[in-house]
Amino acid sequence: MTQVDFYILPSADPLARLDFACKLSEKAWRLGHRVYIHCSDAAQRDDLDARLWRFKGESFVPHGAAEDDQDAPVVLGLGDDPGHHQDLLVNLDLRIPEFFKRFARVAEVVVEDPAIRQAARESFRFYREQGYPLQDHRLQRL
Asked: Which helix (H) or strand (E) holds 26?
């Protein structure tokens, strides 16, 4: 059954979610995981792509857009088709994608922005009611 982790960041800035997604993706990739990052829209995906290129000067996270490079270790996607990915889903959308069940793990990234917190509460409730194992990680600093 899919393990769901909520990462609760001490920031009200929605862009902090993208920075954390970069860090989480790099860590997962270095541990040998394949990562699918589900973005809410093209603008968010473009911003995340730019951040993955520059977030850490001494490292590079190999990544690509879902429609261009399904074989990249980290894939940035939109829509309802994650391709053949099934390891780690980092969900940056405010809705749970229907395909989440095929992943071993789901990471929901939450900041103190009211709309994001409300969506996270609804997602948490949904996952709990469906019986998915849940874990929350309250981060002290980014």
From this structure: helix 15-30
Sequential DSSP letters for 56-109: -TT----EEETTT-TTSSEEEE-TT--TT--SEEEE-SSS--GGGGGSSEEEEE
What's residue 88's pLDDT? 98
Helix (H) or strand (E) holding 126: helix 114-129
User: How many whole angstroms separate alpha carbon 48 and alpha carbon 59?
Assistant: 16
Tokens of 92: 């940056």
Q: Which tens digit of pLDDT belongs to each residue from 14-25?
A: 999 999 999 999
Please report, for the chain, the start and end positions of each structural domain, with discontinuous segments joined by +: 3-138
CATH of domain 3-138: 3.40.50.10110
> Whole-angstrom Cα distance, residue 11 to residue 5?
18
Please tell me what DSSP assigns to residue 130: T
Phi, psi of 11 (to 5 degrees): -150, 150
- Give the number of other CB atoms < 10 A from CB of residue 21: 26
Amino acid at 4: V
pTM of model > 0.85:
yes
